[in-house]
Specification:
By secondary structure, the chain is an alpha+beta fold. Helix content is 29%, strand content 25%. Strand 10 and strand 11 form a beta hairpin. The N and C termini lie far apart (74 Å).
Length: 382
């Protein structure tokens, strides 16, 4: 990206956010716009593709704290009416904005001086490697795969070297030539009287190369939208809505810089049998009235494992929850959560004569004690 881009392009306006927007606000706006203008959702729509490129370019700068500061500083200075040496009211002779903003190499002032020094004809530096942009995507997992971990294929779209011409911009069978205007530097200058304004070469548009027969896919730019498929390992125990960071799986870096990171938002499909509470699995198991009243040993399903035997003590009330150790979700430290079993006492909808007689005998045996008497007393007292 040229310094002219820094001064002329309003990346905040491109993403539709305020200049003091937080990183989360910038990311939220980028994700919304990227979904709307993504090439996969707008097949053959050149305007949407160009809009997607602008959105990606803006996010690439504003999502990086260092680049965002350089961008803000440059635009603030350029629009502040600072009088340059040699202009009306200023000092005479040449100048170097790198000296004005000085600072040690790598400092904020030094970086800003290098940036604007190149714009106004002062000291310039060689393009430095740039870290690739972070990329966000989403994937859906089955309940079991989220618990056990799984490797998924993710299809990512973004701008990169044109595959047809291998990034040269030249039509197959031809090669690009060194730009005769800038002699391969990619920079030209405009004389504004007391100082020279450096800008991308108009002949080669800053590439330093020209092609006689441009590539039909990228029109000679050497850049094109492309898709790539990566294999990403989703760790065991991921929850619904969780955001996973995959280091180095984002956009490729520029000029040898490291790749960005990939953030994957995971959506988990609910299971028909099991639920989840943190690292514990949950399940509701029906039991008969005699099992709850007299006690019993029942078999309980375990996730992707053999059923476990659970002892139900006599007198177990409806809704009681039992804990089966080590049958839940694996944590990052290697420990495993539990299986929480809630009993649901089943009341028969129909009774035969024998069962009805047995229940009548049972009712007579326990007497006429009213289990709601204490509840009614406390309600009346309140």
């Amino acid at each position: 990206m040229s310094t002219k881009d820094f001064l002329e392009k309003d990346f905040y306006k491109t993403l539709g956010v305020a200049k003091d927007a937080s990183p989360d606000e910038i990311k939220k706006s980028y994700r919304k716009l990227a979904r709307k203008y993504h090439p996969d959702a707008n097949k053959g729509n050149q305007a949407s593709e160009e809009r997607f490129k602008e959105i990606s370019e803006a996010y690439n700068v504003l999502s990086d704290a260092g680049r965002r500061k350089e961008y803000d500083d440059a635009r603030s200075l350029f629009g502040s009416g600072v009088r340059m040496p040699g202009s009306a009211g200023g000092g005479a002779g040449g100048f170097d904005l790198g000296d004005i903003f000085g600072g040690q190499p790598g400092s904020t002032g030094g970086r800003l001086g290098d940036l604007l020094g190149g714009v106004f004809g002062g000291r310039s530096t060689q393009p430095r490697p740039r870290r690739g942009a972070d990329v966000e995507t989403e994937t859906s997992l089955a309940f079991g795969d989220a618990i056990d971990g799984v490797t998924v294929s993710l299809r990512l779209a973004g701008e990169g070297p044109c595959k047809t011409c291998a990034g040269t911009g030249a039509k197959a069978g031809t090669v690009p030539k060194v730009c005769p205007t800038c002699e391969g530097t990619g920079q030209g200058s405009k004389n504004l009287g007391n100082f020279a304004f450096s800008e991308p070469c108009r002949t080669c548009r800053g590439r330093g190369l020209v092609v006689d027969d441009p590539c039909e896919v990228c029109s000679g730019s050497g850049r094109a939208m492309s898709t790539r498929t990566i294999q990403a390992r989703i760790p065991a125990g991921v929850g619904d809505g969780q955001r996973i960071k995959l280091k180095g799986k984002g956009a490729p870096g520029e000029r040898g810089g490291p790749a960005g990171d990939l953030y994957v938002r995971v959506h988990v499909t609910p299971d028909k049998v099991f639920g989840r509470s943190g690292h514990n699995l949950t399940i509701t198991v029906p039991v008969t009235y005699p099992e709850a009243a007299l006690g019993a040993e029942v078999k309980v399903p375990a996730h992707r494992a053999m059923p476990v035997n659970l002892r139900i003590p006599a007198g177990t009330p409806n809704g009681r929850t039992f804990r089966v150790r080590g049958k839940g979700v694996r944590r990052q430290d290697g420990t495993v959560g539990d299986l929480l079993v809630t009993v649901d006492v089943q009341v028969p909808k129909q009774l035969n004569d024998e069962a009805r007689e047995a229940l009548e005998t049972f009712r007579k045996a326990i007497g006429d004690a009213d289990p709601r008497s204490d509840l009614l007393r406390r309600a009346k007292a309140g």
